[in-house]
Structure formats: C-alpha cells, structure tokens
Amino acid sequence: MRIVLITGISGSGKSVALNVLEDTGYYCVDNLPPALLASLVQTLTDEGLEALAVAVDARSAASLASLPGDVQRLRAEGHDVKVMFLTANTHSLVARFSETRRSHPLSHEVRPGQNPAGRRTLIECILEERERLSAIEKLGHVLDTSELSANKLRAWVKDLVLTEHAPLTLFFESFAFKLGVPMDADFVFDVRALPNPYYDLALRPLTGRDAPVIDFLDAQPSAGEMLNDIRAFVEKWLPAFKGDNRSYLTVALGCTGGQHRSVYMAEKLAAHFSATERVVLRHREQ
C-alpha cells in the first residue's frame, strides 16, 4: 500500500495537504492516534485499498513516541511509506490563527496542577507543539509553508505525491532572503554576490526565466563560476544522500528579492540535473 503520513505544526497547512491527497484518490483519515495506524493499514489492505493518507498531530502525545517505530515496521512489511512534515515560522502561525480566529488544538489542554481557567497562550501552544513533534520532524520531507499561499501549497504537495516512487527527488527552490530562509532546505546557497539585474530599469520587472535577464547573467563570468561550483558540489554529494536512503534533497538558492538571480540559478541547475535525476523546480516568491 502507498501510505502518506502528514504531520507537523498546527496552522501549517495539514488540512490543505490532506485535501489534495483526497482529490488524487487517497483514502484520507484526519487526526488519527498513531497507536491505531498499524490496525488501520491492515484493515484497509484487507479491503484492497492501495493508497492511504493519514494526518497526525500533537494531540496524540501519548503515542507519538511510537511513530518512528511504526513507520519502520510498515516499511519492513512492504508498504511504501512517505512522511510529510509541514511547518512554518511562529510569526506566520500567529497571523494565520488570528485571521481564522481558530484556537490552537493544545489550548484546550489543562496541564497538571493548572487552573482550568488559565490555559496556554498561543505562543506557548506553538512552542509546546514544536517540542512534542521534534522527534518525528526528520522522519520525512519537511515543507516550510511560511510564505506559501494555499494554492501554492496545493501545487507543492502534488509535486511530492508525483515523486512517491522515485528513489530520490532533487528540489531546487528559489527564494528571497528578505522574506526568510526556507526551513525545509537541506542546502542554502547565497547568490547575492552576483551582479543584480534589478538595477537595470529594463530588467527590473522581469524574472530569471526571461531571456533578457538570462542573457544578462550568462554574460557575467561570476555567474558561470558560481553555477559550476554549486553544480559540482551537488554532483559530488548526491550519491552519498542516495546511499543514505533519502527520498528528498532540497537545494535552496537565495537572492535579495527572489525574482532574478535565485530564479536564474534554480532554473539552470534544474535543467542540468533533469537529464539524470528526478527534479522538481519551485520558485517561492513567484
């Protein structure tokens, strides 16, 4: 059975991800206690289902510790298990809870010895949830949704689903440093040292996918040197990550605004590695 386990921080988009998987044919279960995962998989396998998506959150604190072992056992039984961990920075989470006026799931818990009227603040809930989930964060692919719209998140989740049978998928992602470094990046390269097309008024409204910007950066020796260095680094270490049984490797390229240099670099690297690897290209600011 193909199994996608969705977990992560409340407010980071788990429901959006689960809806995407439901639309692509997965049998979906929300807020499942991890202790019930093995029996659910067995039941659905007996019924002939081939694709299952399960969302797990920090409210199942008592059984979260068993989740890594459960995932290993399911894989040993021959199931194709992928884990998707969604997260976001605290500022984005606070803004989302404020916009929706929803309460955090942990805000309803009463801590031992606590007056029921004195519940956790939102910030305290977020910190507590990060602590509870820290042990399972590295079980699979971490997806930082801090700067993503719901539509972009849906597209990125679909990309992840499409790569579920690939031994390793390379993600090349452009971003703007002024909006923060992606938390899901395995490697981050700073390309702000390159000449900036932004200062050419004719190039400013364009992006790194437009021919005039490409021509501008192609003409810069430093751009070619940096591109070759990053390419050589990834080529050198990619076999080691494959040998470590990694399913995903995210290489993030950042410039100031995430429009020109980082996009150019991500496009060039994706085009190069697409000839031999499973590649997904993402532009966070576009």
From TrEMBL:
Statement: the UniProt record of this protein carries the keyword Cytoplasm: no
Binding site for GTP: 57-60
Binding site for ATP: 8-15
Coiled coil segments of this chain: none
Keywords tagged on the record: ATP-binding, GTP-binding, Nucleotide-binding
Entry annotated with the keyword Ion transport: no
Annotated ranges, domain RapZ-like N-terminal: 1-162
GO MF annotation: an example: GTP binding
Domain RapZ C-terminal stretches: 169-285
NCBIfam families to which the protein is assigned, alphabetical: PRK05416.1 (NF003828)
Protein name: RNase adapter RapZ
